[in-house]
């Protein structure tokens, strides 16, 4: 049997075989491209599994949110600063009420007092009141002991703030030489303090340092000053008043001319740059002949 003759092909036959092979290869390629991989099985999540997955995501979000919130430590609400009040969620008006209350040397001794003074909501009070930390004599007060302590505090004499010298200020705990110099410099600039709360206007002084000074000193001898008539003073005279710059003085004069006089000093709140806090200081040096 001659096997060689079976493998002898002419050009047409070889071309046909080659074409057949190409068709088979192309068919296999298409098959593998369009046929999904059965080794990978995609299973749709059930509603129960989806809810569990969403719950886990929500839990992680809450953990992240809790970690980003500032941690609250026990604190005395009498010494809340502007920034502290902001981080606690208090509004500017509520913080201002607290600061004005403390400027009068009055104290908050309970969560109820805090809400009455500031007007915070019940929900906010419930959140922050567990962190209130009052002195021992407030939380464990005894009638006899507290009466004695208040009597002692009232009987303790205070010195004149306008006569205190550098040595007197540096003896106060928590008051360094730099602040003592600023107190003396500001007092000289004013010609003397008219009220204790003007200490808050000193640059760089903290509320705790003001409280420490006020515990030992108070204004006893007020300087003699002549009130400036807001309806007749020029810009130069007005600008000598604390918190009134020359630009604000010009605005006051413009307002005065436009409204044909200022009937009440509270109208100055309408002037840009004069806040309620500044107006309390300005009133010490101004008057209105319309009053």
Descriptive key words:
elongated, 291 residues, DNA polymerase, domain 1, 4 strands, 14 helices, single chain, mainly alpha, two-stranded parallel ribbon, 52% helix
Describe the structure.
It contains 14 helices and four strands. It has helices at 11-34, 47-68, 82-88, 92-103, 111-118, 122-128, 136-139, 143-155, 166-170, 177-190, 207-216, 235-238, 246-258, 276-282; strands at 159-160, 217-218, 228-229, 286-287. Mean pLDDT is 82; it is low at 143-153. This is DNA uptake protein ComE-like DNA-binding protein.
Side by side, the strands of the main sheet go: 1-2
Gross geometry: elongated
N-to-C SSE string, H for helix and E for strand:
HHHHHHHHEHHHEEHHHE
**Number of helices, counting only DSSP H or I runs of 4 residues or more:** 14
What is the rounded distance between the termini? 140 Å
Q: Main beta sheet, described? A: 2 strands, parallel
Poorly predicted runs of 5 or more residues: 143-153
In total, how many beta strands? Answer: 4
Oligomeric state of the chains present here: single chain
- Output the radius of gyration: 40 Å
Short description:
This protein has about 290 residues and is mainly α. The chain has 14 helices and four strands.
SSE layout:
Layout lengths: L10 H24 L12 H22 L13 H7 L3 H12 L7 H8 L3 H7 L7 H4 L3 H13 L3 E2 L5 H5 L6 H14 L16 H10 E2 L9 E2 L5 H4 L7 H13 L17 H7 L3 E2 L4
Parallel strand pairs: 1-2, 3-4
Organism: Leeuwenhoekiella marinoflava
Keywords: DNA-binding, Membrane, Transmembrane, Transmembrane helix
Protein name: DNA uptake protein ComE-like DNA-binding protein
